[in-house]
Specification:
single chain; about 300 residues; alpha+beta; Ribonuclease Rh, Chain A; two-stranded parallel ribbon; EC 4.6.1.19; Ribonuclease_T2_eukaryotic; disulfide bond; ribonuclease T2 activity
Length: about 300
């Protein structure tokens, strides 16, 4: 069995986003969204800035050059284990549930998924680039990821059915379309399920670096039963924080109830250890369905 990965290392998966996200430990600006939940990520440097130890994927995962091409920005197909293709536009998707799914989740946005869109804005699904798995919980437990399962049970939750069913659905629909998760990219040290850990650890690490609730709160936008917010202000706050495009989707008959936020990235290198680069270009499907003015409603207690 491959060595287990600590939750601290899992969260450090998102360390490559430090250049885009202000991880200020003191003073003004948006605070590090991880600190309120997990405490300090690591020590600080002499200059006072946060330092994060890079995540070390399982032995045999692709080791890619630092100067490799960025997905969707290269005309020729590079090393298939160090260049995500054809689904080179990655979306970290979150949703604002109308119900409190667990105690203390009144301020939680939750993970919807990590989706590899094609470079033209369309997408594939249920591919065969990586194996399909249905026993996600058992795999994470096998690799010593009990802590990660606990946090996923809070932040990656199913509205209907079980969380385990949702995770298998998300993995088989989306992760199997990410070519760098192919067993061949892990070399001779490959053991089935390593790609499952790498996918969920990456998705969850990105999610915790993009705390939508905190970002909006710092911009003076909080859930309210009466207030109406300009969509442009919500979008500006999220895009300024993430450094790239954010697609917003809304529910309700008038599409005026804020429901989803999709953060859009390219990747330089593999999914496992690559650098996520905020996407700033225009592409098909880069706009959501929200009205110009939207409501951001407080959650309701789930009926039992």
């Amino acid at each position: 069995m491959a060595p287990s990965t600590s939750l601290r290392s899992v969260l450090a998966y998102a360390g490559n986003l430090v250049s885009q996200i202000p991880l200020q430990l003191t003073g003004g600006g948006v605070p590090n969204p991880l600190s309120s939940v997990f405490g300090p990520i690591d020590s600080t440097s002499d200059s006072g800035s946060a330092t994060i130890t890079p995540y070390d994927p399982f032995n045999g995962a692709p080791s890619c050059p630092v100067d490799g091409p960025i997905s969707c920005n290269n005309q020729s197909v590079a090393d298939s284990c160090c260049f995500i293709h054809p689904g080179g536009r990655l979306l970290l998707t979150q949703f604002w549930d109308e119900e409190v799914h667990v105690g203390g989740a009144e301020e939680d946005w939750t993970v919807h998924g990590l989706w590899p869109d094609l470079c033209d804005g369309s997408y594939d699904q249920y591919c065969g680039m990586a194996p399909h798995f249905n026993n996600i919980t058992e795999i994470l437990e096998h690799y010593g990821q009990g802590e990660l399962i606990g946090y996923m049970n809070r932040y990656w939750v199913a509205k209907y059915g079980s969380n385990a069913h949702l995770w298998a659905h998300e993995y088989n629909k989306h992760a199997t379309c990410i070519n760098t998760l192919a067993p061949s990219c892990y070399g001779d040290n490959y053991s089935p399920g390593q790609e499952v850990v790498d996918y969920f650890a990456k998705a969850f690490g990105l999610f915790k670096m993009l705390d939508t609730y905190v970002i909006l709160q710092q911009a003076g936008i909080e859930p309210d039963s009466e207030k109406v917010f300009e969509l442009s202000k919500i979008q500006d706050a999220l895009e300024e924080f993430s450094g790239g495009k954010v697609i917003l989707n809304c529910g309700g008959r008038r599409h005026d109830i804020l429901h989803e936020a999709w953060y859009v990235y390219f990747v330089k290198g593999s999914l496992q250890s690559g650098e996520f680069v905020p996407a700033t270009d225009s592409f098909r499907g880069d706009h959501g369905n929200c009205a110009r003015n939207v409501r951001y409603l407080p959650k309701k207690l789930r009926a039992h």
